[in-house]
């Protein structure tokens, strides 16, 4: 089974910027939720994917990702819940691991995370100086929670 083993951290400062080796502009759309899992479509550059993620088990979860034609992805976005998640992902290698620094735009503008994918759950992580508090298990930092909270704030401004 394909597994995603990932830890998420808040970011301290901007020292990570000097290590960026690649930058991607990504857009995610939530297509469906099932139990504690989800199905999303993602567009980045000239590629697109459908991803199925199962429920979390600690820092692990089943993840299946399938590349799809870009034109089909654009059509699928029209079926997704709004708002879509927009972010700039910066790839930063640090002591043998590849970190993804996500700088959100649009509905989640101003939110930044550092994520690192691991080979196994107990894998030691050399901590970069710009990785702050770990929020892997904190539901306040899940995208669904952040989007919901943001929608409430926006509704409050227009009321």
Task: Provide structural commentary.
It is a single chain. With 159 residues, this protein is α+β, with helices and mostly antiparallel strands. It has one domain (3-158): Hypothetical Protein Pfu-838710-001. Helix content is 15%, strand content 52%. It is built from two helices and nine strands; from the N terminus they run E-E-E-E-E-H-E-E-E-E-H. It has helices spanning 70-77, 143-158; strands spanning 3-11, 22-34, 37-44, 47-57, 60-68, 81-94, 97-105, 112-117, 131-134. An eight-stranded antiparallel barrel has the order 1-5-4-3-2-6-7-8. Strand 6 and strand 7 form a beta hairpin. The longest helix is centred in the last third of the chain and has 16 residues, at 143-158. It is globular and about 40 Å long. It starts with a strand and ends with a helix. The relative contact order is 0.23. This is CYTH domain-containing protein. Residues 2-148 form the CYTH domain. It holds the Pfam family CYTH. InterPro entries: CYTH-like_dom_sf, CYTH_domain, NeuTTM/CthTTM-like. It comes from Roseomonas populi.
Average pLDDT confidence is 91
* Strand elements, count: 9
- Silhouette: globular
Low-confidence parts lasting 5 or more residues at pLDDT below 50? 153-159
Measured by DSSP, the beta-strand proportion falls in over 45%
At CATH level 2, the architecture is Beta Barrel
CATH topology: Hypothetical Protein Pfu-838710-001
User: Termini separation (Å)?
Assistant: 47 Å
Major sheet summary line: 8 strands, antiparallel, barrel
Radius of gyration over all CA atoms, rounded: 16 Å
Strand order of the largest sheet: 1-5-4-3-2-6-7-8
Estimate nothing, just give the exact number of structural domains. 1
Structural class: alpha+beta
Q: So how many helices?
A: 2
- The CATH class designation is Mainly Beta
The CATH homologous superfamily corresponds to Hypothetical Protein Pfu-838710-001
SSE order: EEEEEHEEEEH
Fraction in helix? 10-25%
Pfam families: CYTH (PF01928)
Organism: Roseomonas populi
Domain CYTH: 2-148
Protein name: CYTH domain-containing protein
């Amino acid at each position: 089974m394909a597994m995603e083993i990932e830890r998420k951290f808040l970011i301290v400062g901007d020292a990570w910027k000097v290590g960026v080796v690649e930058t991607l502009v990504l857009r995610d759309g939530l297509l469906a939720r099932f139990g504690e899992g989800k199905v999303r479509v993602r567009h980045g550059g000239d590629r697109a994917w459908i991803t199925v993620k199962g429920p979390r088990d600690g820092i692990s979860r089943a993840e299946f990702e399938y590349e799809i034609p870009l034109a089909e992805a654009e059509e699928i976005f029209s079926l997704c819940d709004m708002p879509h998640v927009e972010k700039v992902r910066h790839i930063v290698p640090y002591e043998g691991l590849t970190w993804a620094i996500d700088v959100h735009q649009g509905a989640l503008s101003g939110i930044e995370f550092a994520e690192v994918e691991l080979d196994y759950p107990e894998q030691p992580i050399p901590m970069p100086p710009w990785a702050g508090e770990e929020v892997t298990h904190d539901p306040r930092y899940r995208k669904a929670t952040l989007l919901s909270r943001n929608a409430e704030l926006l509704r409050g401004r227009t009321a």
